[in-house]
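User: ok so my PI wants both of these folded by tonight, can you help

Assistant: No problem, let's get them done. Here's the first:
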Amino acid sequence: MDDLDIGRLTDEIAQRVQARLTRVDLQGRILVPIGVSARHIHLTSEVLAALYGAGHQLRRQRDLSQVGEFAAEETVTVVGPNGRALEGVRILGPPRGFTQIELARSDGLRLGLDLPVRKTADLKGSPGVTIIGPAGTVVLREGAIRTTRHIHMSPEDARRFKLTDGQIVRARVEGTRAVTFENVIIRVGERFVLDFHIDTDDANASGAETGSFAEVLV
């Protein structure tokens, strides 16, 4: 990576962090923005090639809250053991070192899957699915999960909020269907941008949407 690329990446990180932090009004409480995560899939380069053809490069549709990550234009069909399918499951880029399908509980029920709640990359013993792309089909032995509720934050955020990586907290969403979410994991990383990730089932239960806020309860 040359100096120009490094400078551009540094500016991008600074802009995204500032954009998120300026919307956080502490008022004596820890308030974090919410990002609702719809069903999606992370692929290895090898699985991407099998589904879309050798040498295929993901086309960026839009940037995500976390630096360097994006929603791709490409989608796949995910088929469960009961033969039912979810079409148009969005691929997130860039490719990773593992293939992981992140679904809500209602998605799993449709596919006939008892989805475990796991951290990212903790896939051992998770159920498999069949993935269908325009150039081929891949049968996975494992990889379908419900991700743990988690809050991304930078080391600066963690110091400011007096929280630590891996700490378990609660997060409350106010409103007419107010909900307090348990077992929320704090994830601290140098490139992380402040964001509380929940799936669509949690969002529907609480009335939360991307851009609204949750209060962290320690």
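One down. Here's the second:
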Amino acid sequence: MLNIWPELPISVIYDDPPVDTNNVVAALKLKGSVSNIDLTVNSAVWETFATVMQDPFPMLEYLSVESYCGMTPFISDSFLGGSAPRLQRILFRDIVFPALPNLLLSATDLVELWLWNIPHSGYISPEEMVTSISLLTRLEELSLQFQSPRSCPHRAGRFLPPLTRTLLPALTYLSFKGVTEYLEGLVMTSLYWK
């Protein structure tokens, strides 16, 4: 009788530690139906979920991963199969995800990108950031906040103006917390909006 219902989107929410992880793992295995993932995890719990999240989630529109108790989860290169074409909103807090620029290149429908409390070990250069968001023409909100004042490693020289410009026509909100040199790097590597 249940098969008469249309397939409904699934929202997976986990707020560490009160919920049993088995139900969350079972829900994450339904990759074709999951549209929202909102996880607050420590490193150990993240490892449990990450093993199930190595393949694409074709319906995923919202993704939030936040660390719990200062235990920084690491997201591998194979996360979501490296592709998230329907993703519209990303929020990462206290997360190390060196392959984020590659994932962003596939998330061309992204409207909001919130990277908060970026650990120094999760540093992404201004040049990489601009390159990774260059195709995000629907991006309306961008928030970059670094955990450490060392958000810009020492560089031998100043940023050179690029040969091409990146236009973000829908961008209406930009929030930044970090060293001035990083923000200058974003602007000097051609981040423009209307």
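The chain has a mean pLDDT of 84. The beta strands are 10-15, 34-41, 62-67, 89-93, 112-118, 141-146, 166-168, 173-177, 191-193. Good luck tonight!
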